[in-house]
Design a protein that fits this description.
Layout lengths: L13 H5 L3 H13 L13 E5 L3 E2 L2 E2 L11 E5 H9 L15 H15 L3
Antiparallel strand pairs: 1-4, 2-3
The structure holds zinc ion (ZN).
The site of zinc ion has 8 residues, from strand 4 and helix 3.
Protein name: HNH endonuclease
Organism: Aquimarina intermedia
């Protein structure tokens, strides 16, 4: 709940619109299924939340159009969600010019894992 404070540049009625919102519930369900009900950063399965990696694609707001931009949505645990908003250089911080979408993040994570395995 407190993390909503950290979201900058969102419409003032945004928080209200997320409550009991059928569309948002569909977005959350789809993103969680895609991410196998795990935090994409740490892999934990508790206190999962769905995060907007960005609010704008090509200069246009994706709010209430998230189903068309699921790649910019990601499943995070409460802790990593908080970090994503607080750390400017976090790959999922909406204000980070070098932020990564979910596909790109997964791809890079897999590459790193392969490197560690010596593959
Ligand atoms: Zn996490």
């Amino acid at each position: 709940m407190s993390r909503m404070r950290h979201i900058r540049g969102r419409p003032s009625n945004y928080r209200k619109s997320l409550q009991n919102n059928k569309y948002w519930n569909t977005v959350k369900r789809k993103v969680r299924i895609r991410d196998n009900f795990k935090c994409l950063v740490c892999g934990c399965k508790i206190r999962l939340e769905v995060h907007h990696i960005t609010y704008y694609v090509n200069g246009k707001s994706i709010l209430n159009k998230e189903l068309e931009f699921l790649v910019w949505m990601v499943t995070l645990c409460e802790k990593d969600h908080d970090k994503a908003h607080k750390q400017f250089d976090h790959p999922f911080n909406p204000n980070n010019p070098k932020k990564l979408n979910a596909d790109e993040y997964k791809r890079r994570k897999n590459i790193n894992r392969a490197d560690e395995d010596g593959a």
